[in-house]
Please model this.
Amino acid sequence: MATAVIPVRERENYLNKEYGVRSWLLTTDHKRIALLYLITITFFFFIGGIFALLIRLELLTPAGDLVQSDTYNKLFTMHGQVMIFFFLIPSIPAVLGNFLVPMMIGAKDLAFPKLNLLSWYLLVIAGVMMLHAIATGGVDTGWTFYTPFSTSFSNTKVIEAGLSIFVAGFSSILTGLNFVVTIHRMRAPGLTWSRLPLFIWAHYATSIIQLLGTPVLAITLVLVVLERALNLGIFDPTRGGDPLLFQHLFWFYSHPAVYIMILPSMGVISEIIPCFARKRPFGYSFIAMSSLAIAVFGFLVWAHHMFVAGMSIYAAMIFSLLSYAVAVPSAIKVFNWTATMYKGSIRFNTPMLYAFGFIGLFTMGGLTGLFLAALGLDVHVTDTYFVVAHFHYIMVGGAVMGYLGGMHFWWPKISGRMYPEAWGRLAALIVFIGFNLTFFPQFVLGYVGMPRRYWQYPSEFQVLNVLSTAGSTILAVGYLLPMIYFLWSMRYGKPAPDNPWGAAGLEWMSASPPPTYNFDETPVVTWEAYPYGEIAVPEEAPVER
Amino acid sequence: MFDNFPLWPVRASSYAGNVDALFIFLVVLSGLMSIAIFVMITVFAIRYRRQRNVRAEQIDGSTVLEITWSVVPLGVFLMIFAWGAVIYFQERTPPRGAAEIYVVGKQWMWKLQHVEGQREINELHVPVNRDIKLIMTSQDVIHSFYIPAFRIKQDVVPGRYTYAWFRATKPGTYHLFCAEYCGTMHSGMIGSVTVMEPGQYAAWLSGGVASGSLAQTGQALFQQLGCGTCHRTDVQGRGPNLTGIYGKPVTLEDGRTVIADDNYIRESILSPAAKVVSGFKPIMPVFQGLVTEEQLNALVEYVKSLSQSPAGSAGSPQLKSPGSPQ
Model:
């Protein structure tokens, strides 16, 4: 047969090396595990997003008319639990971190590849437990599980949800452990601490919080389960317990958890801005050290969630003071990112647009944190929509913008394909507009006095709620678009070159998509981080038009 | 100035203006900061957009700038901290001589007990320009007593008393919300506060159907529960004489000294063995679960009435003390 067609073989990479379900479910390749996480958390983002839209629809009118009050209470509880424990906390670390930490430090894999797979299985098991709890009635305690409501009064699936989050916590702890060991032990020759990418510094700080904080959450949830199941008196005052003890334990983890969600995002932004400004980051060591400072100070401010809980006023003053201290390293980062653009050569690709969005929204989230840390003002605005707006600016405006920016930035590396640039820019713009329309009115709503977690509300609050609901539908479109065009690009996107952005970082020296062990030869690093002065600017990124 | 601006809450308490002043300051400060960042990013983005044959200038950083933008914000933050702390101290320190009202939160209503004997549910009537101290507890889960017009919020915690105070400055009717999520009808746990001119308030008080003051209710309960057989006032009984003890230090069996305040009296009724007075045996029965929160309030008020109480009632003219904030 003289006309036999010889197929053009693609380079072997982590995606085409093996096929079949087994090769994915039993993989120990950090890049494949990252994709398993990506699918998992995208699923949960979708679930949590549906809860959010139902909440916003209910609040379109002052009367409680779309769902029953108990249903509404379950919706905001499960929105919080799903989004925090099954989307935000694993988001950047478990997807981008998993994919990039070994690649950025020139390693073949994480230090404990099997442990990495176990982390994913734990998250899946926890997720199934959570879905089961949701399907068999749900939980109505709020994601905060405040006692004695959660232990003695709620008649919903508190134990199931608590155990689910307990298991999810171990997934988070193991990922943190893996990263810490990997960053300490597996850096390529020459890759000293002062040459590490800022993404790695951010993940190092995050991992430390995961390791030290999450066990406290686990203990707290076990105590809730014990009090509820065995009638032990731990938090319920009628059984000799102390309800404020629960709040101290809960926030000891759950405040640092905010930094678990935002620090990796800051790491992403610290990669994107230098790349698209073609510059070394301004104040590299200050950005790196501020991540560690946030991790340390973040553990000392938990009781600022409790200024009206009945604490001593002097304790409140200490926590207020420390909360202002933790604001300084965040401010340092914002100033340094902005200064990095000075005298740069700036391109406006989708990741950079998300970085701009991140800086804007994170700045607003951070500044409104100053309002909440001010004791006398916090009394009025805590537990109102002002708080809801504030933490969404940090955790959605900040963390999710960073996540999406990072997904676009590294998508060519992950998938080997380019996403459609025009659609990417459009989606970034829609997300930014939708986000602000959803959450800015909530600042006003909070100061005017609307408490959070209200199923029905006095009619004077309606106009602001309608604006917010309108914004949420725009935001939903903005989030759906990337899901669609990322999937599309996997088949139809232009093949990505190894380094489409002309970015620094060892991950770009590998192929797109990378081979299973990342590098054919272990790289030897002889240069400082971010040598953008020496990397040629790609004439025009091979983007889809 | 902002009273007619519909996006601003009514300002109707003595310290609401202080809270608003700090808020406005922070809005201006944050606005300026946001604009500064926004302008810088925009200017850099346009001025330093990618152009042919123009390369980025590599700059490593500047220690002077880093120190400047760490120390200057820290200084501003410390000022905000101090400002917030001063207001908080004011909000959290009831002036001497404030009239007292007891508040009990339960799923899903507010129960209010005036010391004159009036009881209300989800409605609170108070006189204007009078310091009111709220002595609050919950009979089930944690709630939070929130009156936006007064800029006051305090969690109401089962098993203990928490306090709040306000001085209403403007007659009218304002929202009373529960701000801490408390279950099914959390958003239905709302009521109103009606601030009245003193004359109107006196009329309202006398128009009620109260059967005696709260202390009298407490006294009747005290007898009914048999407390008086041990806590005697004529001779030394098996329990301490309660006359004059309120607000005074008490020496305990283990040598510690505690102040006989509301929370101590409350604890001593519910679980008497917790802090036994020196010289007495822990023989008092436990009343946990036997008296309601409202009965407990009446008992506490009765014990207080056995001392020369410094507190007035909302109906009596205010004793002007030099320390009372304006």
Notes: Chain A touches chain B through 92 residues (CB under 8 Å). Residues 69-104 of chain A form the longest helix (36 residues). The domain at 33-509 of chain A is CATH 1.20.210.10 (Cytochrome C Oxidase; Chain A). Chain A is about 65% helix and 0% strand.
